[in-house]
Specification:
The chain has about 475 residues and is α/β, with parallel strands linked by helices. About 40% of the residues lie in helices and about 10% in strands.
């Protein structure tokens, strides 16, 4: 078996603007949905009062410290960094006719710094945030007008950065809207399932229009979607459990079906009929959906199980996505089950389903890293986690799966999305920041920093099976 990854395989890490940048009101930035959820994506929306602070307001101050951080990424050997653009830096309220030049200029500097270090930017247009003005004044993605605002934003960044960015993603973990409607589609609490799916439809149309715009404005670019890879297994081999698992996986696969095939699959049309969901879909919508993505990107952290026994589900329900825990797997400190082989399985499933290139743009282990007396962090548990997952990526490539690259989640410690925690650390780089906001924000290399550096330099040859 070939022990190295292919030439041209992209190695790096992944960040999100609202989890690293800080500078939440600098240079004309508007308020986003993330700013209105100070305790994470499942937190209650609270009105910001004068003088009130959230740990995300400063985050790790990437807005001011990005040259130092990019230099560290380059030292590890990164060839790619996934970042997102904060929509509110360019269109503070979301519906402006003209963008905020200060915001555009900052991303110019960021991309220039990456390219100076030969790191290719992979840019997500919308990563768990949208202008709060679009929620307050239009009702979020439930309003068809938001499609126009997003297309304006997308065309703006494609035009501005067409010579600097050749890899794009539309919406981060687009299927997460089913679990967190405010975060995903800007809908307030109490919205119906029909309202959520209509908002999702508008977002899928906007994604198609962004693909169309990217091809027109940057013909040599590639643009993909981004799924939360929520793979589930049957809890038992009972046929009812197997079929329930098929249906459960289709809840997130349907997003990929639309974005890769250009139309709603039959199983979703049946679901809508049986649940009295009557989507407004225009001929123009259908045309927009026909602009399918060039590649599929996804996050992978864990798998879970499914059973048709409703009583057992309530008894066993476990983690962030309410999956039934797998009795054969160990869990992280946060209850996320660790399943490296599941990544190989998922890669094969997506390849068989779509025959499009795949990009793993999030994978990592959150842990409470503690410096020793000398200030060093021996995160051998993270090394083990990443090694085992990368071995399975290599196996999938041997299976014939076309994998473009791997960007681990949070190459530098950041603020977690789900609960706005800093103690849940993912990085190869430690940031001196505590949950109460104290700390110097100084950066230091963990043991995993040097390990990842060697893995990249060897193109994966030093992975241990």
């Amino acid at each position: 078996m070939n022990t190295t990854f292919p030439e041209g395989f992209l190695w790096g890490g992944a960040l999100a603007a609202n989890q690293v940048e800080g500078a939440w009101r600098e240079d004309g930035k508007g308020i986003s949905t993330s700013d209105m959820q100070p305790n994470g994506i499942f937190g209650e929306v609270v009105a910001r009062r004068e003088g009130e602070h959230s740990i995300k307001d400063v985050a790790i101050d990437f807005y001011h410290r990005y040259p130092e951080d990019i230099a560290l990424f380059a030292e590890m050997g990164f060839t790619c960094l996934r970042i997102s653009i904060a929509w509110t830096r360019l269109f503070p309220q979301g519906d402006e006719e003209e963008p905020n030049e200060a915001g555009l200029a900052w991303y110019d500097k960021l991309f220039d710094e990456l390219l100076r270090h030969n790191i290719q930017p992979l840019v997500t247009l919308s990563h768990y945030e949208m202008p709060w003005g679009l929620v307050e004044n239009y009702g979020g993605w439930g309003n068809r007008q938001v499609i126009t605002f997003f297309e304006r934003y997308a065309r703006c960044v494609f035009t501005r950065y067409r010579h600097k960015v050749k890899l794009w993603l539309t919406f981060n973990e687009i299927n997460m809207s089913l679990h967190a409607p405010l975060t995903g589609v800007g809908l307030r609490a109490g919205c119906s399932q029909a309202e959520i799916y209509q908002a999702i439809h508008h977002q899928l149309v906007a994604s198609g229009l962004a693909v169309k715009a990217c091809r027109e404005l940057i013909p040599d670019a590639r643009i993909g979607n981004m799924l939360l890879g929520g793979l589930t297994y049957p809890l038992t081999c009972k046929p009812a459990d197997v079929f329930a698992t098929l249906q459960d996986n289709r809840r997130w696969q349907f997003f990929g079906d639309v974005q890769c095939r250009g139309a709603y699959p039959g199983y979703m049309r049946r679901y809508f009929r049986e649940n009295h969901i009557d989507l407004e879909i225009t001929p123009q919508d259908r045309e927009a959906l026909g602009h399918t993505v060039d590649f599929i990107s996804f996050s992978y952290y864990m798998t879970g199980c499914v059973t048709a026994d409703a009583g057992l589900v309530e008894k066993l329900r476990g983690n962030i996505l309410d999956m039934v825990p797998n009795p054969h797997l160990e869990s992280s400190e946060w209850g996320w089950q660790i399943d490296p082989i599941g990544l190989r399985t998922l890669l094969n499933i997506l390849w068989d389903r779509y025959q499009k290139p795949l990009f793993i743009v999030e994978n990592g282990l959150g842990a409470q890293d503690k410096p020793d007396r000398d200030g060093r962090i021996h995160d051998d548990y993270r090394i083990s986690y990443l090694n085992d997952h990368l071995v399975q990526v290599r196996e999938a490539i041997e299976d014939g799966v076309e994998v473009m690259g791997y960007t681990s989640w949070g190459p530098i410690d950041l603020i977690s999305a789900s609960k706005a925690e800093v103690n849940k650390r993912y990085g190869f780089i430690y940031v001196d920041l505590q949950q109460d906001g104290s700390g110097t924000l100084s950066r230091s290399r963990k043991e995993s920093f040097y390990w990842y550096q060697k893995i990249i330099a060897s193109r994966g040859a030093l992975l241990t099976s």
